Amino acid sequence: MTAYALAHLRPAAPHPEVFAYIEKIQPTLDPFGGHFLVHGSEAEVREGTWPGSVVVIAFPDLARARDWYDSPAYKEILPLRTRHIDADVVLVPGVPDGYDPAVTAAKLRAAAG
Q1: What is the pTM of this model?
Q2: Which domains does the chain have, with CATH numbers?
Q3: 61: number of Cβ within 10 Å
Q4: Which residue(s) pair with 38 in the sheet?
Q5: What is the pLDDT of residue 74?
Q6: How far apart are CA 52 and CA 41, in angstroms?
Q7: What is the pLDDT, as a whole number, of residue 103?
Q8: Per the CB 3.0–4.6 Å rule, which of 21, 37, 44, 88 could disulfide with 80?
Q9: How far apart (Å, rounded) are the C-alpha atoms in residues 111 and 79?
Q10: How far apart are CA 95 and CA 112, in angstroms?
Q11: What is the Cα–Cα distance from 38 to 36, expressed in whole angstroms?
Q12: What are the DUF1330 domain coordinates in residue numbering (predicted)?
């Protein structure tokens, strides 16, 4: 099942190390089947607040997303970003093909009593 790495990046001044991080990230993703779905896009906020930009990277499954984030290649370039940009980063599994939210609602309703 597809999994995603999601990042909420807070605004920061441009820095040469951030440019280097962006230039070097794709080769760290390739061995794990990772590819960008969203990269640095400004969010159109409809509820709440969201200062900054969004990154979404898709992986074939959660194990490969974890393996990428923990890989020596990614760990080597990660400080190029973290020294200059505050972020929240999460790994989340997607839903299976044919997912029906009504089934989830029924399970939640039954569990709630």
Answers
A1: 0.91
A2: 3-112 (3.30.70.100)
A3: 15
A4: 56
A5: 98
A6: 9
A7: 96
A8: 21
A9: 43
A10: 22
A11: 6
A12: 2-95
Whether the Cβ atoms of residue 89 and residue 82 lie closer than 8 Å to each other: no
Q: What is the pLDDT of residues 46-62, one digit of tens each?
A: 999 999 999 999 999 99
Question: Distance from first CA to last CA of the chain, Å, rounded?
Answer: 30
**pLDDT above 90 as % of the chain:** 91
49 Cβ contact list (under 8 Å, min separation 6)? none
Which string of b and e fits 11-30 if b means at least 16 CB within 10 Å?
eeeeeeebeebeeebeebbe
pLDDT band at 113 (very low <50, low <70, confident <90, very high): confident
Among all chains, which residue has been given the structure tokens 């399970």? 107
